[in-house]
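note to self: the first set is below, dont mix up w the second
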Amino acid sequence: MSIDSLKEALPEYARDIKLNLSTLAGEELLTEQQKWGAFLSCALAGGNEFVIQALHAEASARLGPDALNAAKAAAAIMAMNNVYYKFTGMIENAEYRTMPARLRMNVIANPGVDKLDFELWSLAVSAVNGCQFCVNAHEPILIKGGLSKEQVQTAVRIAAVVTAASCVLNGEAALQGASAIVASAA
């Protein structure tokens, strides 16, 4: 599997998603590690099995084992953090925002790759998961660390397109399943 197999799996109505996948795969604003770590972590956050497998195969050809593991860790830790911090932002009782999270987040301090790359992937996954608090926590670290706003935007563009691919393939699978149910009920 590869990004080409992912593009082939997308239906014609998702042509823009296919074109954006091609554009982003060739993007040069990010390092290869930043780019493919973002692709993989966002695929994991999106949860579609085909997208995950295709982008894992593509990332595996470009990243070392430490970077692959760190991209997976970014998706995992942000899945937890995004739920927790979205809650603290949603709830009217401000006391929750002053309470310590009391959740282990050791991987953020020692991700096994350049910390800026891990922060970039964490921001991209937070965008996928819709956590305003986490996006606003990671972006200043990236800018202070030397990334440009265009580089941050590129990671979020990857997040958007990978999420769209997951959405399309999840929808197609649901429609096929629904068609099978309707056919068997007839």
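second set (the one i keep forgetting abt)
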Amino acid sequence: MTEGPKINPGDIILWPMLKLAYDTQPEKIAALLPPGIDPGSRPKVHLTVYNFPVPDVPEYGILINVEADYQGEEGFYTIGYGIDQESAIFISRDRNGQPKYPCEVSYYRMLDSVHARCTHQGYTFFEFDGKATDVLENPEDHSETEWWIKVSPGVGMLPETTYDFPPHVVRVHTKYGTAYNQKVEGKLTLRDSPWDPINELLPIESEVSARLWTPNSFERDIALAGKLNGEAFAPYADTISGSRWPGQNGGPKRG
């Protein structure tokens, strides 16, 4: 049996990530993707709750991805990174287009019990309670690609199609190994929230898979991959907080 990674008592290095996945309605994913980003072959939502030092401070976060392709390359379109440390939000979004926004995240394992809860603007929109069970076989080393959007709408009272920096796709390519992989049996609860409308816009339509995954990160590359049509992108420029959830007048989605 594969043994889990060993860390110093009290250290946060090598905390496992809670990886969840489920199917949703294909049209729901398509509605969130701006023109130029295409739905993937599977209508699948991927959620990752984590505790990782960024750069040297513990960052608790939830990553919300849907499977999507860009120019024929498979990957994940990132809806948002809800995180609990303010210092990493604005530089990540402004520099790379990484859709980070403030979120209260509680995530821990106590013996075999696994718990996670995410709250934004007073709304608890995500909760998971489970139990770690079987140790899973480590998958082969693999690569993952995320698609982010870097854009800056024009300053002042200008038309929506005016940009100081037009919308570009950012390709984030990471090579991973696996230090430890463990199945989790549990229940995922998504609750209605005007700030994080995952329950409304990406509803659960299948069983939810869950595991604790301790990755080995070998390589990470972040680069501009191409430009999107600015006029077609205009309805997607207004978002909630720093995420890619559709907004209205700078606030949460209404109506």
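remember for set 2: DSSP finds four helices and twelve strands in the chain.
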